[in-house]
User: Fold this.
Amino acid sequence: MRPVEGYRLAGWLALVTGLATLNYASRASSGRPPPDELYQWGTAVGGLILFALILGLVLWLARGRERELLALRRPISWPVALGLSVLVLVGIAIVSGVLDPFLHPGQEQGLAPTRWIGARAAPFVANFIVVAVVAPIVEELTFRGLGYSVLVQFGKPFAIVGVGVAFGLAHGLVEALPVLVVFGSGLAWLRSKTDSVYPGILLHATFNSASLLLSVLT
Assistant:
C-alpha cells in the first residue's frame, strides 16, 4: 500500500473524535434512550441522516484511492474469512459472558426493544434496516476500511487495537466500552487477515441482526 497522506489521517481522527464527543455528550445530557426507541420513525430518519454524513466524509477522505483505502476488494479466501468470522464471534461471546454480570454492557445502550409491538412493525422494520444493514456498512468503511488504512502505517498490531479503541469510543458508552473495543479489534483483525472490508460488513450485519431479533423474540 502506498503511504497515506497526513490529511487523511488527521481527517479520520477528527471524525472519530467528533463522533465520540457527540455521543458522550448526548448520553450525559439525555441519558439512556426510551425502550421504544426503535419503534419510532424519527430514530430511523435521524440514523440515516447521521450515517449519510459519516459516509460522505469517509468517501471524501478516501477520494482518489477508495478501493485501496476502504478495502473494497474480495477477501483472499471466503472459506478462510468465514472461519475467522466464527472465531471473532466466539471471542466476543466469551468476553460478553465474562463482563455481563459486572458491567451489563448489553443493557447500557438501551436501543434494543424489550418486546414486540405488532402495531408498530413498520417503523421497527425501518430501524432494523438502519441498524442491521446501513450501520454495519458505514461503520466498517469508516473503521475497518479507512481507519485501518490510515493506522496500519504504524504497524498492524497498532492498527488493530487503535481501530478497536476508536470504534468503542465513537459509540459514547462506558460499561459497554470493553466489549465494543474487543469487537472492533476483532473486526480489524479480520480485515487484516482477509485484506477486505466485506467479511467484516457481513459479520457486523449478522451480529446486529441477531441481537435485534433476539431482543424481540425472547
